[in-house]
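Notes to self after the call with IL:
- keep both proteins in one doc
- input above output, always
- annotate only the second one for now

Protein 1:
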Amino acid sequence: MAPVTGRWDNWAGTAHDEYLAWTEPPETPGDVQMGEVIAWLRDELPADAMICNGAGNYTAWVHRFYRYRGYATQLAPTSGSMGYGVPAAVAAKLRHPERDVVCFAGDGCFLMTGQEMATAKQYGANVIFIVVNNGMYGTIRMHQEREYPSRVSGTQLVNPDFAALAKAYGATGEVVTETAQFADAFARAKAADSPALIELRTDPEAITPSATLSGLRAQAEAREKGNP
């Protein structure tokens, strides 16, 4: 009997190919390529590793380029709550000490709940915290540039030395300024007998995987001049 064919024959395969292409990270401004960092973790972390995050544009890279391969491997807020990832990661590691737990936090996110590193240290929750530092509240800045390019305010941050702050809590801490430095930094964090923090210093221009701040600003200014 001849196989049944129909107009959906190639749809699933095409959609899957498009999905795989979409999850390959494009190059973005700056020396730290967040997409490459996430893709590396995607390949290196075990399937049961737990990924935690708060809210902010930095999560676009995590959700787009990491491939979750098991149930209960993602802890993320559904309400857009900044600061969620750090305490969630501590709780996850205490509940599942045998599993790798990696927490992503923007610099603004970490400033809200980063003090929970003290809890992690006190109870031996050896989470790896990855602080994505672009020096601003990225999501709010994106909306300001897109809608009100001449009225940007209140989104720049004056940050502490996150690596030094981690060490003050009794954790390890180091700074990554180039993508090539990340793998070794992560290996050291994983080998540490304590919580560990890796600060990624990212370019503010890389506001999403597919947009830049200057590009959004230029589009908004063109609209203001009547040139959509």
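Protein 2 (the one to annotate):
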Amino acid sequence: MSAEPKLSIVIPAYNEAERLPPTLDAVRAWLDAVGWDAEIVVVNDGSSDGTRDLLEGVAAADPRVVPVTHADNAGKGAALVSGVAVARGERLVFFDADLSYALDNLAFAMARLDDGAELVIGARDLVAGDSRRDYGPLRRLASWTFNGLVERALHLGIRDTQCGFKAFRTEVARPLFAALTIGGFGFDVELLFIARRWGLRIDLIPVVMEARGGSSVSVVRHSVRMARDVFAIRRRARRGGYPERPASA
């Protein structure tokens, strides 16, 4: 692998010892098939199920895999902040350890970045029909309600803020993630709020989510926390708590 790979794939992982191996196998096989020079940064966010040992073993066998470990569980947003901080690729993408989105979306996202986009986000609402396969009714209702709340409170103009597939120019990703104050699942909204504030070109691509099961997310508990995060973002913005876009981005 070259000193600066073309792409950094960042995957947050919390107690993913079962779901992570097939995901890493699939990602590495896909990269081999397309011939891309890439690194796979996996952030073990304080797991207690053997995820750390698994990652160390895989990394020892494949130098493309870069393990990062948190001593304690800090949240998905915090895990991604750590992963982005060590990423070396010219482009960067993150997605979840369950590989809910087809890897071919990577090619579409990279094409948009090459065309001038600074941030590319998966948009399940752009897909005709059912783009959230295997979503239960409670999760569908929570998603619809949350996205409505985000739009009313922050006016982002993005109907699917929580899609777990997002790609960036790395020089933009670094200051974006460094500016985050939310470590949990509400980080997506804060990230997009800052991106809008900075005037970044944001492109959307249609994606289909295949829920894999085994998630540690509690829909009700996390929905309440994320709603609080939305209002915290608005309060912080009104106090001038977010930085201006740096010249390097």
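Annotation: The chain has a mean pLDDT of 92. DSSP finds eight helices and nine strands in the chain.
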